[in-house]
Automatic annotation (TrEMBL):
This is Receptor-like protein 12. The chain crosses the membrane at residues 1005-1025. SUPFAM superfamilies: L domain-like. Belongs to the RLP family. It is a single-pass type I membrane protein. One of its GO terms (cellular component) is plasma membrane. It holds the Pfam family LRR_1. InterPro entries: Leu-rich_rpt, Leu-rich_rpt_typical-subtyp, LRR_dom_sf, RLP23-like. Gene3D superfamilies: Ribonuclease Inhibitor. Keywords: Cell membrane, Glycoprotein, Leucine-rich repeat, Membrane, Repeat, Signal, Transmembrane, Transmembrane helix. It is found in: Cell membrane.
Length: 1037
C-alpha cells in the first residue's frame, strides 16, 4: 500500500496550487490510502469536494482501503456523497470533519456504504441522533472511536456485542443514556473500553472472566453504580482504570487486588467509598507500577495519608476537590520521579512542606485554591526543571521569594489571589524562558523598576488588583512579544500616551483601568506604522480620557472595547458602528458625557455583539436598537423615543434596561415574542397604556421593572405555573384591581413592589407561602381590612420567614395588630455580624441590582443597592389600633420601624429596647400613653426618634442617644418634661435614673450628601458608620 499525504492545511484561495502538480503524477492504481493531513509547511487547504468529487486527484476511489481527512475539511460535506464508491474501505478517519449536515443518517449511511470497514474514527464530527441499527452490518469492526460528539444520544446499541473482533470502543464525551449492555464487557478481544463523560448512562460492572484482555477501562462521569473493586481481580493486563459515579465499595478482605500489578494510570472521581478510606488508600499505595494517579472530588474528609509516599514510580499526581485537610504530607517528597503535581480545591492548611524541594524532576507544579498560608517556601528554588509554577487562590503572604530567580526554565508563573506584599522583583520580567506572569489580586506595592528587555520574551503580564504605585515603566512598552498587558486597579499615576505603545505590534489585550492615570489619544503616530494593529481587547475604565482614541479607526478586529467612567464628550462617531460589525462582542461607553450618536440607521448593524452599554451619558433623541443583541443598557440618558415596534428586535435579547430616560408610548405586543428576555427595566420613563399580559404570565422574565411610568389597567390573573419572576416592580403607576392570586405560582419571587398605585383588596396573606420573598411594598394603595392571620394560616410558622422589608403604609388597614406578625419574621430575628450581600441577579450577561424606596429617618429614600441585612417595617398612615404587640422586641436585627399615624393605644413596649440595631423609630401621631421606657436608651444606633403627638408623660430619658434628639421628637405630648423640652420636671417627677454617657466610641454617625452619578436630578444621601450599617448608595427621591 502507498500512503499519499497531500498535507493541506488552510485554503489560501479558490484556485489550485500548481506546486502540487507533481503529486498528481503518482499512478492512481497504486494508491490504497489517502491522507491529506495537516502540515505546517503548506498553507493550502483543499476541500473534499475539490479533491475527490471534482476529480482534481485522478484516483481510483473504489480501490482505496484507507482514508484519513482529519481536521482539514472545513465545509460540511454530504456524508453519503463522501462515502460513495468506497466499498473496499477498511479504515476511515474523519476526526474533526463536520458531518452535521447528514442529520441522524450518518450511522445508517456507514452501514450501507462501507461493509468491509474495520477501523472507524469520527472524533468531534458534530454527530447527533441515535446510532442506527444499520451499523450492525459492520461485523468486521475492530476499532470504534466516536468520542466528543455530544449530539449522539439514545442507548448504546446491543449489537456491539456481535462485533467479535472489537478491541477498541471509545464512546466518551457523548450523550448516551439508558443501560449499558453488560455483555460488551465479556468480549474476549476488547482492550480499550471508554464510556466516560456520559452522565445519563447507567450500568453495573460484571465479574470479569479469567483471561480477559482489557487494558483500559474508564467509566468516569457516568451513572454506573454498585462498583465493587473485586470486579477487577481477573484483569491482569489492566493498565488504565477510571472510576466514578455511584458507590465504589471495597471489602477489607479484597487483598487479591494486589494482583493488579500492571496498573499504571488510576483515575477516581466523585468516588463515595463504602467502608474505611484507609484500606482503600493502602491498596492504592501498593500499586508499585502506578505512574499516574488522579483523585478528583473524592470527599474523604481525612488527613492526607503518608502512604502516598510509597508510590515512588509516580510521574503525575493530581488531587482536586478532595476533602483532605490538615497539612500536605511531607512524604510527598519521596516521589522523586514526579514531573507533574497538581493539588487544587482541597482543604489543606498550614505551610507547604520543605520536602517538596526534593522533587527535582518536576516540570509542572500547581497548588491552588486551598487554605495554605505563610511565606512561599524558598525550596521552590531547587526545582530547576520547573516550566510552570501555579500557587493561586491561597493565603500565601510575605514577599515573592528571591530563589525563583534560579528557575531558568520557568515559562509560566501564577501567584495571583494571595496576600503577597512588597515590591515586584524585576528579575521576574527577565527570566530567560518566562512567557506568562500572573500576579493579580495581591497586596503588592511600590513602583516597578525599569528592567532590561533585550532577552525578554514575555507574552502575558497580569498585575491587576494590587497597590502598585508610580508610573508605568517604559520597559513594558519595549516588550515586542507582548500580547496581553493588565495593570488595572492599582495606584499607578502619570500620563500615558498611546503612541508610546507603537512597538507592541502583537498586543491583543490592554487593560489600564481604575488607576490614577491620564490616557491620551494615540493619533499622530510618527512611526508611520499602524498603532497596535492586532488589538482586539481594550479596557481603559476611569483613565481621565477626554476624547475617543482615533487610532481605533484603523483597528480591523476589535472584540471588547470598554471606555466607561471617563469624561469623553460630544458625539459617538459613526465608525464605532461600522468598523467592527463582524467582530465586536462587548462595547461599554457608559458614564461619560456623550450627547449624540452619528448613525446612518437606528438599527445597529452588529452581527456578533453581545453587550452594549451606553448608560449614564447625555444621549438624546431616538434610541437605536441593535439586532440580535444579548444585553442592552441605555439607562440614565435623555432618550425621548425608541424605534416603533422596538420589541420586534429582541429575539435574542436577555437583558434590556432603558430606565431613567424620557421615553413615551406603549409597550408593543411583540414583546411577547422575546422568548429569551430575562431582565426588562423600563422604569422612570413616560410609558403608558396597558401592561402586556405576557410580561406577567410568561415563563421567560426574571426581572420586570416598570416603576414610575403611566401604565394603567389591571394585572392578568393567568400567571404560568412555570413562572420564573424573581422581581416585580410596578411602583408609581395607575394600576387598578386586585393583586393576582396566581402570582403564588412565582415560587422564586423575592421582591414585589406595587406601591403608589390604585390597587384594592385585603392583605394578601397567601404571599407568605413564597419562601424566597424578601421585600413587599404595598404602600399608597387602597388596601383595607384586618391584619389578623386567617385561621387556616395561623398554624404555619414558615410564612414570610425571609422577609426583610415590608411597607404597607398609606392604606386603609384597620383593627388590632396580630402579634403573630412579628413572630413569623425569622430573618429579622437573626443577628448579623457582617454587611450582607447586595440583592442582585447574575448570569444575564450583566448583573442587575434591585432597588427599593422606603421612608427612612423621615425622608423618602431610594436604596439603589439593597443589602440582604437591610430590614424595615412601615405600617404608618393606616387605622391600626390597640396595643403595639410586645413580640416586636424579638426583631433584634430590625433597622427601621415606622408605625406612625395610626390609632395605637397603651404603653410603648419596653421590649423595643432589645432591638439594638434600630436606627429609626417612629411611633408619632398615635394615642400612646405612659412613660418613655428607660430600656429605649439601650438603642445606641438610634439616630431618628419620632414620639410626637401622643399622650406620653413623665421625664424624657437623659442618656446615650436621647441626648441627641431635639424638641420635634417629643412635641405634642403635654405630659412630657425635661430636656430638650423647655418644660422642667417637678419634684414629683424626680426619680432615680442611671446616667450613662453617650458612647462616641461605640457609634459615629456622619451624614453626608453628594451628587448622584448619572441621574441628572436628585442627590444621594448615605450614612457612614463605624460598624458598617445600611447607609449605602442612597438617593433621596
Amino acid at each position: 500500500m502507498i500512503l499519499v499525504d497531500l498535507a493541506f492545511r488552510k485554503m489560501a484561495s479558490r484556485g489550485y496550487p500548481s506546486s502540487l502538480t507533481s503529486t498528481f503524477l503518482i499512478q492512481a492504481s497504486t494508491v490504497r490510502f489517502l491522507s491529506p493531513s495537516a502540515n505546517s509547511q503548506t498553507s493550502y487547504h483543499w476541500t473534499f469536494l475539490q479533491c475527490i468529487i471534482l476529480n482534481q486527484l485522478k484516483l481510483q476511489i473504489s480501490m482505496l482501503s484507507g482514508m484519513a481527512i482529519t481536521y482539514w475539511c472545513y465545509e460540511s460535506p454530504a456524508f453519503k456523497t463522501l462515502l460513495a464508491n468506497l466499498n473496499n474501505l477498511r479504515e476511515l478517519y474523519l476526526d474533526g470533519v463536520d458531518i452535521s449536515s447528514s442529520g441522524e443518517e450518518w450511522s445508517s449511511a456507514l452501514g450501507k456504504a462501507v461493509p468491509r470497514l474495520q477501523v472507524l474514527s469520527m472524533v468531534y464530527c458534530q454527530l447527533h441522533g441515535a446510532i442506527h441499527s444499520s451499523l450492525s452490518s459492520l461485523r468486521s469492526l475492530t476499532v470504534v472511536n466516536l468520542k466528543l460528539n455530544d449530539g449522539i444520544s439514545g442507548a448504546v446499541p446491543e449489537f456491539f456485542t456481535d462485533f467479535l473482533n472489537l478491541s477498541v470502543l471509545q464512546l466518551s464525551y457523548n450523550n448516551f443514556s439508558g443501560w449499558f449492555p453488560q455483555t460488551i464487557f465479556q468480549l474476549k478481544n476488547i482492550r480499550v473500553l471508554d464510556v466516560s463523560h456520559n452522565e445519563q448512562l447507567s450500568g453495573h460492572l460484571p465479574e470479569f472472566p479469567g483471561g480477559a484482555s482489557l487494558e483500559t477501562l474508564n467509566i468516569q462521569y457516568t451513572n454506573f453504580s454498585g462498583v465493587r473493586l473485586s470486579s477487577f481481580s481477573n484483569l491482569l493486563s489492566l493498565t488504565e482504570l477510571g472510576l466514578e459515579g455511584g458507590s465504589i465499595s471495597m471489602e477489607p478482605n479484597d487483598l487479591f487486588l494486589n494482583k493488579l500489578n500492571s496498573l499504571q494510570n488510576l483515575q477516581l472521581s466523585f468516588a463515595q467509598f463504602s467502608g474505611e478510606f484507609g484500606p482503600f488508600f493502602s491498596w492504592i499505595s501498593s500499586l508499585k507500577n502506578l505512574t499516574s494517579l488522579q483523585l478528583s472530588e473524592c470527599y474523604s474528609s481525612k488527613i492526607m495519608p503518608p502512604l502516598i509516599g510509597n508510590l515512588t514510580n509516580l510521574t503525575s499526581l493530581e488531587m482536586t476537590f478532595c476533602g483532605f485537610f490538615g497539612q500536605i504530607s511531607p512524604s510527598i517528597g519521596n516521589l522523586n520521579k514526579l514531573t507533574s503535581l497538581r493539588i487544587s480545591d482541597c482543604a489543606f492548611s498550614g505551610t507547604i512542606p520543605s520536602s517538596i524541594g526534593n522533587l527535582k524532576k518536576l516540570r509542572r507544579l500547581e497548588i491552588s485554591y486551598s487554605e495554605l498560608s505563610g511565606p512561599i517556601t524558598t525550596d521552590f528554588g531547587h526545582l530547576s526543571n520547573l516550566t510552570a509554577l501555579v500557587l493561586t487562590g491561597c493565603r500565601f503572604s510575605g514577599r515573592i521569594p528571591s530563589t525563583i530567580v534560579n528557575l531558568t526554565q520557568l515559562i509560566y508563573l501564577d501567584l495571583s489571589q494571595n496576600d503577597l506584599r512588597g515590591e515586584i522583583p524585576t528579575y521576574l520580567f527577565t527570566l530567560p524562558a518566562m512567557l506568562q506572569l500572573e500576579l493579580s489580586s495581591n497586596q503588592l506595592s511600590g513602583p516597578i523598576q525599569e528592567f532590561d528587555t533585550l532577552y525578554s520574551h514575555m507574552i502575558i503580564v497580569s498585575l491587576g488588583q494590587n497597590q502598585i504605585s508610580g508610573q508605568i515603566p517604559g520597559s513594558f512598552f519595549q516588550l515586542t512579544s507582548l500580547i496581553d498587558l493588565d495593570l488595572s486597579s492599582n495606584n499607578l499615576t502619570g500620563l500615558v500616551e498611546l503612541n508610546s505603545l507603537w512597538k507592541l505590534r502583537k498586543l491583543t489585550s490592554l487593560d489600564l483601568s481604575n488607576n490614577r492615570l491620564s490616557v491620551l489619544d494615540g493619533e499622530g503616530n510618527k512611526s508611520r506604522v499602524p498603532l497596535l494593529p492586532k488589538l482586539s481587547i481594550l479596557v481603559l475604565v476611569s483613565c481621565n480620557m477626554t476624547t475617543m482614541p482615533r487610532f481605533l479607526m484603523h483597528i480591523n478586529h476589535m472584540e471588547v472595547l470598554d471606555l466607561s467612567n471617563n469624561i469623553i464628550q460630544g458625539t459617538i462617531p459613526q465608525w464605532i458602528w461600522e468598523t467592527w460589525n463582524d467582530s465586536l462582542r462587548e462595547l461599554d461607553l457608559s458614564n461619560n458625557m456623550f450627547t449624540h450618536m452619528q448613525l446612518t440607521s437606528y438599527l445597529l448593524p452588529y452581527s456578533r455583539l453581545d453587550s452594549l452599554d451606553l448608560s449614564s451619558n447625555r444621549l438624546q433623541g431616538q434610541a437605536p436598537m441593535p439586532n440580535l443583541l444579548k444585553a442592552v443598557d441605555y439607562s440614565n440618558n435623555r432618550f425621548s423615543s425608541v424605534m416603533p415596534n422596538f420589541t420586534a428586535y429582541l429575539s435574542q435579547t436577555v437583558y434590556l434596561k432603558l430606565s431613567r430616560n424620557n421615553i413615551s408610548g406603549h409597550i408593543p405586543h411583540s414583546v411577547c415574542d422575546a422568548s429569551n428576555l430575562k431582565v426588562l427595566d423600563l422604569s422612570y420613563n413616560n410609558f403608558s397604556g396597558l401592561i402586556p399580559s405576557c410580561l406577567i404570565e410568561g415563563r421567560s422574565l426574571v426581572v420586570l421593572n416598570l416603576r414610575e411610568n403611566h401604565f394603567k389597567g389591571t394585572l392578568s390573573d393567568n400567571v404560568s405555573d412555570h413562572c420564573n419572576l424573581q422581581t416585580i416592580d410596578l411602583h408609581g403607576n395607575n394600576i387598578q384591581g386586585q393583586l393576582p392570586r396566581s402570582l403564588s405560582n412565582c415560587a422564586d419571587l423575592g421582591i414585589l413592589d406595587i406601591g403608589n398605585n390604585r390597587m384594592v383588596g385585603t392583605f394578601p396573606f397567601w404571599l407568605g407561602r413564597l419562601s424566597d420573598l424578601r421585600i413587599i411594598v404595598l404602600g399608597s394603595n387602597l388596601f383595607y381590612g384586618s391584619l389578623t392571620y386567617p385561621t387556616r394560616d395561623r398554624k404555619s410558622r414558615e410564612y414570610f420567614s425571609k422577609l426583610q422589608i415590608i411597607d404597607i403604609a398609606s392604606n386603609n388597614f384597620s383593627g388590632n395588630l396580630d402579634p403573630q406578625w412579628f413572630e413569623r419574621l425569622a430573618s429579622m430575628m437573626a443577628k448579623f455580624n457582617d454587611m450582607g450581600n447586595i440583592l442582585s441577579h447574575q448570569s444575564f450577561y450583566r448583573d442587575y441590582h434591585d432597588t427599593v424606596a422606603i421612608t427612612y429617618k423621615g425622608q423618602y429614600v431610594t436604596f439603589e443597592e439593597v443589602l440582604t441585612t437591610l430590614t424595615a417595617i412601615d405600617f404608618s398612615n393606616n387605622a391600626l389600633e390597640g396595643d403595639i404587640p410586645k413580640s416586636v422586641g424579638s426583631l433584634v436585627s430590625l433597622h427601621i420601624l415606622n408605625m406612625s399615624h395610626n390609632a395605637f393605644t397603651g404603653r410603648i413596649p419596653p421590649q423595643i429596647g432589645e432591638m439594638r440595631q434600630l436606627e429609626s423609630l417612629d411611633l408619632s401621631w398615635n394615642k400612646l400613653s405612659g412613660e418613655i421606657p428607660q430600656e429605649l436608651t439601650d438603642l445606641t444606633f438610634l439616630s431618628t426618634l419620632g414620639l410626637c403627638r401622643n399622650k406620653l408623660d413623665g421625664r424624657i430619658p437623659q442618656s446615650r442617644q436621647f441626648l441627641t434628639f431635639e424638641n420635634t421628637s417629643y412635641e405634642g405630648n403635654t405630659g412630657l418634661c425635661g430636656p430638650p423640652l423647655s418644660k422642667p420636671c417637678g419634684d414629683s417627677s424626680n426619680r432615680n435614673e442611671v446616667q450613662v454617657n453617650t458612647s462616641r466610641d461605640h457609634v459615629d454617625i456622619i451624614l453626608f450628601l453628594f451628587v448622584g452619578v448619572g441621574f441628572g436630578v436628585g442627590f444621594t444621601a448615605g450614612i457612614l458608620m463605624k460598624w458598617g450599617k445600611i447607609g449605602k448608595w442612597l438617593r433621596i427621591a
